[in-house]
Amino acid sequence: FWLIWHPGSGRRWACALRAMPTAVAPAVIYEVASGVATITLNRPEQKNSLGPEMVNALGDALAAAMADPAVRAVVLTNAGGTFCAGANLKGSGEAPRYSLVDIFRLMRDGPKPIVGKLKGHCVGGGVGVAAACDISVLSTEGQLGFTEVRIGAAPAMISVVCLPKMRRADAAELMLLGDKISATRAAEVGLVNYAVVPGDIEAKVADIVAKLLRGGPNALAATKSLVYRVPGMPVDDASQWTSDLSMKLFGSQEARDGIQAFAQRKDAPWVPKSKL
Hints:
Blueprint: E1 11-15, E2 28-33, E3 36-41, H1 52-67, E4 73-78, E5 82-84, H2 100-109, E6 114-118, E7 121-123, H3 125-132, E8 135-139, E9 143-145, H4 156-162, H5 168-177, E10 180-182, H6 183-188, E11 194-196, H7 201-212, H8 217-229, H9 235-250, H10 253-263
Parallel strand pairs: 3-4, 4-6, 5-7, 6-8, 7-9, 8-11
Antiparallel strand pairs: 1-2, 2-3, 9-10
Helix pairs in contact: 1-2, 2-3, 3-4, 8-9
């Protein structure tokens, strides 16, 4: 791997650049600036399909973002007109180091909120990656579809992240028919949060990220954890766990700083000084 550093407030590296004399476009571009890691799927000629190279690079980028204390939030986006076309059926020579299940686990269990800036179509496994984002914005130019049944397969692994977001009736219709749906319908059934015209997607994502950065880092991590853990817990266990979590958070320095800032009608110390 080559590591590419850029001077200034941000830094950038490219995953899956092979050590060879001629330049090879990276499968994933990773950039950090102003507390935000931006991960860009960068195989537009392959419709950002999920071959081993792409999955390995995405896994490395997600792991780096989650481990970096300078990163407060993650934006996952794409180059080209397709966010992700699902599995790369042509195969690849690179040995896999992550599975799609690993990617979903990194996205779910990682403490940083992930915002999907989906600038194009999401198909098959790409729907799963989109649904695994904590908050997602899909361009109205893009369509979304569970097309697996059309090739004799099923949306098996991605069902784990998609079904919790959908009514059973919608899930049955979309997964069994294999039709592609509009961004507006995708938002209506809960697979994404927002459908916006292409010219508005940058501003919408920037607004979401700015609001996330107003939340305390530990508070965001705890809130993300309870969103995914509580629904699957027995009521008594959930009540005890959330009670312990609440006491821990209210007793933290982060909460003391936040409460003091609220009382003084000023921003908490973790809020970026510049307006985003």
